[in-house]
Design brief:
The complex is a heterodimer of chains A (about 160) and B (about 180). By secondary structure, chain A is mainly alpha-helical. Chain A folds into two domains: about 100 residues, Cytochrome C biogenesis protein (Helicase, Ruva Protein, domain 3), CATH 1.10.8; about 55 residues, no CATH class. Helix content of chain A is about 70%, strand content about 0%. Chain A is built from six helices and no strands. In chain A, helix 2 packs antiparallel against helix 3. With about 180 residues, chain B is α/β, with parallel strands linked by helices. Chain B has one domain: Glutaredoxin, CATH 3.40.30.10. Chain B has six helices and seven strands. The chains are: A mainly alpha (about 160), B alpha/beta (about 180). At the A-B interface, helix 3 and helix 4 of A face helix 5 of B.
Chain lengths: ~160, ~180
Amino acid sequence: MRTIKAWFFWVCVSITLTVNAAIDTYQFSNDENRHRFQTLTSELRCPKCQNQNIADSNAEIAKDLRTKVFQMLEQGRSDDEIIHYMTERYGDFVLYEPRVNTKTMLLWGGPVILLLLGLTTVFWLSRRRMRAENDAGALSLDAEQQRRLKKILEEDKDMSQ
Amino acid sequence: MRRLLLFIPLVLFVVLGVFLWRGLSLDPRELPSALIGQSFPEFSLTSLTQPSVKLDRSSFVGKPVLVNVWATWCPSCKQEHPELMKIAGEHKIALIGLNYKDDRQAAQTWLKQYGNPYEFTVYDEQGMLGLDLGVYGAPETYLVDAQGIVQYRHVGVVTPEVWAHLQTLIDKPEAK
């Protein structure tokens, strides 16, 4: 049992080792650049393999873009400059977080609109139910009405016989 | 009024259906080019066939051209090659090759073997001009007008249909 456990442990460990991002060796001049590199490459989308960022992708083009990001960082360019460089060539497509503009208004505003719509519906429904309950209260008959109802029902019975 | 409210699910269904139906015919690999209407990027590279010859933007600006990005490692490039040869034979527009991230020897052999449809081929070993163009895979073909402005970009194989579409663009006055 113990050996099976150990064996299972090592299988798990080796599996996690194989699921790793693409690794290149870049010599960063400082830790801040390394950190910015990791952030930038995880936010930029690979143009070739569209469901990966350039940090994870092994595509040629992703490799090139990583190198470019590295070079620009080491040249002392700002994050904005690097993002600008990329969007100039590959369009807004490369940004995993789309920018707010007229084209993406619905994308950014959609959830808010839907939330408001949902809240309005909930409010409207609960108010309707409340009113219905109030109306139900008003349905109770007083003694005179009860008497008339009984009479009508009895007449009804007579007629059907 | 109450009755009309009952139709809301149907309306939602139809709207969603239309969007999803439209999504079926969209190609997600087709990216909008950031370069359309922009100037073809500056570069300074050598000729594929004559390594001593320096080429830059002015080597072709002055007449409309088709810039075709290709490489020997790209199977679709082989597929489109006969069409490129045909286009070159029609002498309607000059073809400029951009050999992208390739081996010079292999690329030269390719041109000898399959024929050379290009007026000249720019050798971009590092892929830096490709990066400036926003190339994300070969083959890609750009229509560049006489002022050096990129008018159109086609990603993928140039088929007779694509060539027909390119011709209508070339015949438009703004491409001249």
